[in-house]
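Annotated sample (chain length 199).
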Amino acid sequence: MTRRTPTGAAVLQPETTKSITEAVLDELAEQGYGRLSMEAVAKRAGVGKSALYRRWPSKQDMVIAVVSEFSVPRAIDPDTGSLRGDLRETLDALLEWLNHPRFSRILPDLAAEMARNPELGAVVETMIGIPRRTRGAEILQRAIARGELPADLDLELALDVIAAPIYWRLSVRRGHLEPGYLDSLTGLLLRALGAASDT
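Output written by the structure step:
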């Protein structure tokens, strides 16, 4: 007996999903979360709205899924064998994420929307914040195991300290990073975290 090829909701074409994902990021960067619409995303992607609803039940679900897929893999978990090396690679990845042409416009708008919408904020924290911070915590835990950081290090505070300078400079001050900034920041972070050696 010949099996019938699934149609409709049973088939989610990867190339269509990629087109929609790119359209969501473009619309978010240009319009912001509040003005983004399913209609505009569908039009930009060249699909019907039904293609969106087959993948996500709502605008919020669609945006969170797309931003999560974009953001979480960019939280790398380097294992260079030293805290200095791991921190430096982490800062490079953080800079690339925050400096991305589209995401650099998306993040400030999304952060403002989260302040107005606690439900959205909670979902963003669950889908993006926690996974990214988990990878960062693994770097610090390995450094503790190697004896490079104190065993009683406050991991949550340490993660805030690592991410804050670049976020503040790029997303809040809208400034630029001069040559050597990341190297200087790495040394400062090692001292702030109480590393056994900053060399």
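Annotation: The chain has a mean pLDDT of 91.
Annotation: The two ends are 69 Å apart (CA to CA).
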